[in-house]
Amino acid sequence: MRAIRPALPPGDVLSSAADQIARRFGATRAVLTDSGTSALVLALRLMVADGGTVAFPAYGCVDLAAAARFARVQVRLYDTDPRTLDADLESLEQTLQRGVDAVLIAHLYGYATNVPAITALCARYGVQVIEDAAQAAGGDLCGRRLGSFGPLTVLSFGRGKGLTCGGGGALLSHEAVWNDGLDRAERLLARPAAGWAQLGTTTVQWLVGRPSMYAIPANIPALRLGEMIYHPAHEPRPLPNAAASLLNAAFRSADQELELRRATARELAAAAEGCATLDTVRQIPGARSGYLRWPVLDFSDRRPAPRLGILRGYPRALPEQPELVSCLRDGEPSMPGALELRRRLFTLPTHSFVTGSDREKMIAWLRNEARA
Questions:
Q1: 99, 110, 180, 372: which could join 137 in a potential S-S bond, CB 3.0 to 4.6 Å?
Q2: pLDDT tens-digit profile of 277-289?
Q3: How far is residue 300's CA from residue 217's CA, in Å, rounded to a whole number?
Q4: pTM of the predicted structure, to 2 decimals
Q5: Is 29 helix (H, G, I), strand (E, B) or coil?
Q6: Which domains does the chain have, with CATH numbers?
C-alpha cells in the first residue's frame, strides 16, 4: 500500500515554495505575494523613492500602471521593437537621458528581452533594472533562465502564466544587497489566508484554458475575454497557503509543459512561413522563447478567433491607457513600435491542452483559409 505523505504545516508550505522558486531562478531570496502586481509594488518601493520615476516599456500589461499608481511613482516610457518584442535600445537611452531612477524590462509571451545589453546601458546612467518575468514561461537567454537576471525580479503565477497556481506572484533578489529589503517587506505582509477559493479558480482556468472550450467564455460578455482589464493594486499580501501548495505541485510538470508549448510553436511557425501577409516575431540572438503564447504580426485583415484562443495583443499601448495618465511624466514622445504592436499583433495558444484539431484550425487561420 502506497504511503501517504503527511501534509506540511502552513508555514512550511510557504517556505518550501519560496525555496523552490529561489533555487529555480538562482535567487538569493524569494518573497511570495498574492499577485505579480503586489510583487511589483514591493519592487518599486525598494528601488524607486516615493515620487521617483521608473521607465516602463510602452507596450505592456495594464498591471504596470496599477503598480505604479499604488507605489506612488512617476512613469516615463521607452519603445518596443515590434519584430522581436525587445526593448528599442535607442528609445531606452533617450528615456534614460530624460531622467529615471529605475528601468523595468519585461519578457513578453515568453520572448526574451536583451537583459545584458539593457543592464549595461542603464549602468552608464547609474540606473538599476527590475526584471518583469511574469510572462517568461521558462524561456532562456544565453543558457540562463529568464527571471534570473535582474537585481530584483518579479514573477506571476496567475491566469495564463507558464507556472500557475491560480494566482500569486514573487519578488526575487539576485544580489545579497537587496535581501534585507525583502526581509523587511515580508515582515510587513499580512498573515496568509487559507486561500482554498484558489482551488476553484484554478479548476475554472483549467477548463477554459482549452481552445475547444473558448466557445464558452467567448459567449459570456462579463468575462471580457481578450480585453485589457484594469485591476487596482492593493497593499501587498502573502501568497495564500493553498496557492503555495498548488505551486509546489506545478513545478513537477513545468518542464514538460514547456516542451509541449515549444513543439506547438514550431508547428505554427512552419505554417506561417512564406505567408506574405504575416511577419513572425523573431527571437533575439542566444534566446529560446518559453512561448507563453505564439505572437505574429498581421498585415492583412484577419480577425480574432476567440473560440480558438486566437486573440489580439493588448488593445492599448500603455501611453493610451487612461489609468496611467495620473502618473505619466509630461512630454513623453510618441512610441511607434508600441502602436504598431497594438494594430497588428495576434497571439495564438500553445499550451498542452491544444489538440491536433485545434492546431489544424489555427493553421487554417494563419493561411487565411478560414475566418472567425
A1: 110
A2: 999 999 999 999 9
A3: 27
A4: 0.88
A5: strand
A6: 11-366 (3.40.640.10)
